[in-house]
Design goal:
It is a single chain. This protein is of the alpha/beta class. Helix content is 41%, strand content 15%. It has a domain at 28-158 and 198-247: Decaprenyl diphosphate synthase-like (Undecaprenyl pyrophosphate synthetase, 3-Layer(aba) Sandwich). The chain has a six-stranded parallel beta sheet with strand order 3-4-2-1-5-6, with helices on both faces. The chain is globular, with a radius of gyration of 19 Å.
Length: 260
């Protein structure tokens, strides 16, 4: 773990650039965020966890708005995992209601800003109200082309991969596909993210050094950035700091650097 931690940006270590020095030509195309820390934020303040989730929704608006200002093309937010269904039922119900409220409150902003919202995950597990709210926003923003906001809800990367393999196996069984035709590109085409570029940068808040079953296939060469900030406190400056750290990286994609 110590070796991993040395390779992850520590937000307490000063970034050797000002926030005004973001290079617009070197911004990531796709940023993915593991939004962690809502519960701890609430506990630190003696509040119910639901207060943390509600404040976390405000952080979502701030980050989405900032990403749009910077012309980030894709922003994926990990909102609710398949494992989160195991949380207390009242908390799950609150999260579903919060999703409904978010869709209603932000639809006009997304239309104004040219943001297309999409949801990936096992949406058939969602309550009817949440599923209908998602589908309404997806329809209303389907033709927006300035940015794509992808919300991962009832999402798990292992589950996504199993689903993809099952679909490919069905094609093989039907004689539509030969096993030797299966390659990485084909598997990617069967994922929920089939028509999206892989993330360039993965941000995780709350200081935890784990991926949590998020986009395991897609982030093979993504840059990782961990911020100690709890998600409800994550705002525009913190997002900029992550982007500055990304721009300071030398992305080699497994290639050998001739200078080393």
């Amino acid at each position: 773990m110590a070796q991993i931690a040395q390779g992850v940006d520590n937000p307490r270590r000063a970034v050797p650039h000002s926030l005004q020095q973001l290079d617009p030509e070197r911004l990531p195309t796709h940023v993915a965020v593991i939004m962690d820390g809502n519960g701890r934020w609430a506990k630190l303040r003696g509040l119910d966890r639901t207060h943390g989730h509600r404040e976390g929704a405000r952080a979502v608006r701030a980050v989405v708005t900032r990403a749009r200002e910077l012309n980030i093309q894709y922003l994926t937010l990990f909102a609710f995992s398949t494992q989160n269904w195991e949380r207390p039922s009242d908390e799950v119900q609150h999260l579903m209601q919060l999703l409904v409220e978010f869709c209603a409150a932000e639809q006009e902003l997304m239309k104004e800003q040219g943001i297309r919202m999409r949801v990936i995950g096992e949406r058939d597990r969602l309550v009817d109200a949440a599923r209908q709210a998602i589908e309404e926003v997806e329809r209303a923003t389907a033709h927006n082309d300035q940015m794509q906001l992808i919300i991962a809800v009832s999402y798990g990367a292992r589950e996504e991969l199993v689903r993809a393999v099952q679909r490919i196996a069905t094609q093989v069984q039907a004689g539509e596909l030969a096993p030797e035709d299966i390659d990485a590109s084909m598997l990617s085409k069967h994922l929920w993210t089939a028509d999206m570029p892989d993330p360039d940068l993965v941000i995780r808040t709350s200081g935890e050094l784990r991926i949590s079953n998020f986009l395991l296939w897609q982030i093979a060469y993504a840059e990782l950035y961990v911020d100690d900030c709890l998600w409800p406190d994550f705002r525009e400056e913190a997002f900029d700091r992550a982007l500055l750290a990304y721009q300071a990286r030398d992305r080699r994609f497994g290639r050998v650097d001739p200078e080393h």
